[in-house]
């Protein structure tokens, strides 16, 4: 975006900004210049303050209460930001940035926000001293570019086969987030899950790794299923409960006798006629079931229903069936077991069938919600499920959030194969080298690069503060360790000592840090470039505007507004 300062954000109050400036229709309130900038920074800072104290393994928790009174206790910055209801456009930009970080790198959301806050604070000081925002923006960009180079120089390679390091990466991301006693088990599971779905060096966590929560059993029962778990039960209890060497057919219709047309009347006058009619019904279903048997199918899963006749015939042939699956689940199963989804049995060809080592129904009888279908050892194991067991829903949620972060960072490490030490080591090293770089620059940009360096130190500061350490002492010690060439020196949050984070196995993917720099810089520059806020009066959108936005826009431009119904 080659834009200078002076961009105007015009936000119809109450409407989300799209990132790009929206143009105003009626401006009722207008704030410009320094005031606008100050207000933007103030609003962004409110977001920063709400998550800063959660940074690091010893960060504090926040209690979130939604409008329905549900309570979540978490120290996951991403969750807090997601739940906050924010109105101010620049505060929303910060939240969008955290979301980008989460999407791209899976971790480092709190760090991004803390860095944004520090960069804005530093910028404000310089602006008060008369530095123009344009200069700041270009200086920050130079600093960010150099910081990325520093990060690259710090990166180490980790092979995909290096499970031990991958486990440490998972543990670093989960630090302080889940039940720590099981951290080793959970980390091991993350690595197995990610490697189970890795495909030519790429990992699609969202698509291929599913997390399911079950409340009741203890956390150590949390298990990794090579395959899929679905929240369903067999369509009839007289079917087999376990099927080994499953041959699986997937249908996007059901197995049902044809229903008579709604309005059609049928006159059945004798018992024979009734029997005949019934037999015809049975015959249609039986043909389908026989086709399954012919192909050696022993598991059938359908998107629509299976009726009584279907159930009794399937049971008779010893076929395990599940009905009314969500179409997304059906697709997931199809990928995992290598089956093609067809509409009816008559369309089925041998090559459409999928395979799995074992399909079974598990769970307590009598509790519908407690039954699950497990598909183990699917032919194509590009899908795995982690079943999280926990004593309560809150704990299950906590473990889920910890696992989500850990899975994503392990996936990043497997994809990129580059990592850096954590514990604020990279931030301090970047700060040090940016200061050296600033000395080689002339003019006001030098000030901006120095300010960037100072802002990076907000991360070790917050880490120290949240761990109950003396902030100044810790920072001074950390700085001098880096000046002495210890590039991986970081903060041991438990003892307060400055230690080698690499040796302490606090390891993070390079991508998390690179993305932190680029997202934070982008957002800060965007906020600094705004010098006007024009808020139009809040109003409800008309029916036409809401439902046919394009036609509404067009009509409005042609001055036909009064003629559109609903305006
Ligand atoms: P974010 O949302 O930014 O990931 P976290 O609360 O997860 O925030 O904290 C991440 C920070 O904590 C990183 O800088 C990471 O290196 C650091 N960290 C994680 N584990 C440790 C540890 N055992 N010792 C010191 N620092 C740690
Ligand atoms: Mg984290």
Automatic annotation (TrEMBL):
Keywords: ATP-binding, Chaperone, Coiled coil, Nucleotide-binding
Chain coiled-coil ranges: 261-288
Record InterPro entries: Chaperone_TCP-1 (IPR017998), Chaperonin_TCP-1_CS (IPR002194), Cpn60/GroEL/TCP-1 (IPR002423), GroEL-like_apical_dom_sf (IPR027409), GROEL-like_equatorial_sf (IPR027413), TCP-1-like_intermed_sf (IPR027410), TCP-1_chaperonin (IPR053374), thermosome_alpha (IPR054827)
Molecular functions per Gene Ontology: ATP binding; ATP hydrolysis activity; ATP-dependent protein folding chaperone; unfolded protein binding
Family that this chain belongs to: Belongs to the TCP-1 chaperonin family.
Protein name: Thermosome subunit
Organism whose genome encodes this protein: Methermicoccus shengliensis
């Amino acid at each position: 975006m080659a834009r200078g300062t002076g961009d105007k954000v015009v936000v119809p109050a109450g409407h989300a900004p799209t990132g790009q400036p929206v143009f105003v229709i009626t401006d009722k309130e207008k704030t410009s210049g320094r005031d606008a900038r100050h207000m933007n920074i103030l609003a962004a800072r409110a977001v920063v303050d709400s998550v800063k104290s959660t940074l690091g393994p010893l960060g504090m928790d926040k209690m979130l209460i939604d409008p329905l009174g549900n309570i979540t206790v978490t120290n996951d910055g991403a969750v807090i930001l997601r739940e906050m209801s924010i109105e101010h456009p620049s505060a929303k930009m910060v939240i969008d940035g955290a979301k980008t970080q989460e999407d791209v790198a899976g971790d480092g959301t709190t760090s991004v926000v803390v860095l944004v806050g520090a960069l804005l604070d530093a910028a404000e000081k310089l602006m008060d001293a008369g530095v123009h925002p344009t200069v700041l923006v270009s200086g920050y960009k130079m600093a960010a570019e150099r910081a990325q180079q520093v990060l690259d120089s710090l990166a180490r390679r980790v092979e995909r086969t290096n499970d031990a390091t991958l486990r440490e990466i998972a543990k670093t991301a989960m630090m302080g987030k889940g039940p720590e006693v099981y951290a080793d088990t959970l980390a091991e599971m993350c690595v197995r899950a990610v490697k189970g779905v890795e495909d030519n060096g790429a990992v699609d966590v969202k698509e291929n790794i599913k997390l399911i929560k079950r409340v009741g059993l203890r956390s150590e029962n949390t298990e990794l299923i090579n395959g899929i778990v679905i929240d369903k039960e067999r369509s009839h209890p007289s079917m087999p409960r376990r099927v080994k060497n499953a041959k699986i057919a997937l249908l996007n219709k059901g197995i049902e006798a044809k229903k008579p047309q709604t309005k059609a009347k049928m006159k059945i006058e004798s018992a024979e006629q009734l029997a005949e009619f019934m037999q015809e019904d049975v015959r249609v279903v039986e043909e389908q079931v026989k086709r399954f048997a012919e192909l050696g199918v022993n598991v059938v899963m359908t998107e629509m229903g299976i009726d009584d006749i279907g159930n009794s015939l399937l049971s008779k042939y010893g076929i395990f069936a599940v009905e009314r699956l969500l179409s997304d689940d059906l697709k997931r199963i199809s990928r995992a077991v290598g089956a093609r989804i067809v509409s009816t049995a008559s369309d089925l060809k041998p090559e459409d069938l999928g395979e799995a080592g074992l399909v079974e129904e598990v769970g307590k009888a009598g509790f519908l919600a407690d039954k699950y279908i497990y598909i183990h050892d699917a032919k194509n194991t590009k899908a795995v499920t982690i079943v999280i067991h926990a004593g309560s829903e809150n704990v299950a949620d906590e473990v889920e959030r910890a696992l989500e972060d850990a899975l994503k960072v392990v996936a990043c490490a497997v994809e990129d194969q580059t990592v850096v030490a954590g514990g604020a080591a990279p931030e301090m090293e970047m700060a040090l080298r940016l200061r050296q770089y600033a000395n080689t620059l002339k003019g006001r940009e030098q000030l901006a690069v120095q300010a960037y360096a100072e802002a990076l130190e907000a991360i070790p500061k917050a880490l120290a503060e949240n761990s109950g350490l003396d902030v100044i002492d810790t920072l001074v010690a950390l700085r001098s360790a880096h000046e002495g060439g210890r590039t991986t020196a970081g903060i041991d949050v438990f003892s307060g000592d400055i230690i080698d984070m690499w040796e302490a196995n606090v390891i993070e993917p390079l991508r998390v840090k690179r993305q932190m720099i680029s997202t934070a810089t982008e957002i800060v520059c965007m906020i600094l470039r705004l010098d006007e806020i024009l808020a139009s009066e809040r109003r409800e959108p008309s029916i036409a505007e809401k439902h046919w936005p394009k036609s509404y826009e067009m009509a409005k431009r042609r001055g036909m507004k009064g003629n559109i119904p609903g305006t």
